[in-house]
Design a protein that fits this description.
- By secondary structure, the chain is of the alpha/beta class.
- The chain has six helices and six strands, in the order αβββαβαβαβαα.
- Strands 1-2-4-3-5-6 form a six-stranded mixed beta sheet, sandwiched between helices.
- Helix 3 (103-117) packs across helix 4.
- The longest helix is centred in the first third of the chain and has 17 residues, at 10-26.
- The radius of gyration is 20 Å and the shape is globular.
- The mean pLDDT is 88.
Length: 186
């Protein structure tokens, strides 16, 4: 049974309760900057136990995982969400040199991060979304020795086709207005 009190602004009350709940969820998330692979990487982390590495999508940040971090930590894991190369507080944006933004660099960043934050863990759980899911697939391909299990959201595995440009495939399906096509620079 729900009791309605006419003198209370329920919309404001609900909004305030939601804001307080969000603040509680964010409590205890620690922020650090770690030097890895020639860049400074921002990480948000919480909890103790086996590492669950959360990899964000484009154009997101660690903040995309703000609900999963406390939940995972509360269930006996160490949740770690880095800002990927060039995002948010992590350095390494390829301003005029995209040669420093290859999949090998990005996976190198992740492996170097794991070496620093979990030197005693050979393998970690990995969760990826969007661009982070692509990187998670690459991590599994390039360094399967570092991955205990993988969960990816919104992006399935797409093997590289050396005869076709990925951007051209997307342009063919979705046209020039697809966000990946729009970000290409000639």
């Amino acid at each position: 049974m729900t009791i309605i009190f006419p003198h209370i602004n329920h919309k404001h009350h609900t909004h305030t309760a939601i804001a307080r709940e969000r603040e509680r969820d964010m409590e205890g998330i620690e922020h650090k900057t770690i030097s890895v692979n020639g860049i400074n990487m921002h990480i948000a982390e919480k909890g103790k136990g086996p590492v669950v590495l959360f990899l964000h999508g484009f154009p997101e940040l660690w903040y995309s995982w703000r609900h999963q971090i406390p939940y995972t930590a509360a269930h006996g894991y160490r949740a770690v969400a880095p800002g990927l190369r060039g995002y948010g507080g992590t350095t390494g944006a390829p301003l005029n040199d995209s040669s420093k933004f290859t999949a090998l660099h990005l996976i190198g960043d992740i492996v170097a991060l794991l070496d620093k934050i979990a030197p005693d863990e050979n393998k970690v759980f990995v969760v990826g979304h969007d661009w982070g899911a692509v990187l998670a697939w690459y991590l599994c391909l390039f360094r399967p020795d570092r991955v205990k299990a993988l969960v990816n959201l919104s992006v399935h595995y797409s093997p590289r086709n050396p005869t076709t440009s990925f951007v051209d495939v997307l342009r063919g399906f979705y046209g020039d207005d697809h966000y990946i096509c729009r970000f290409q620079v000639l």
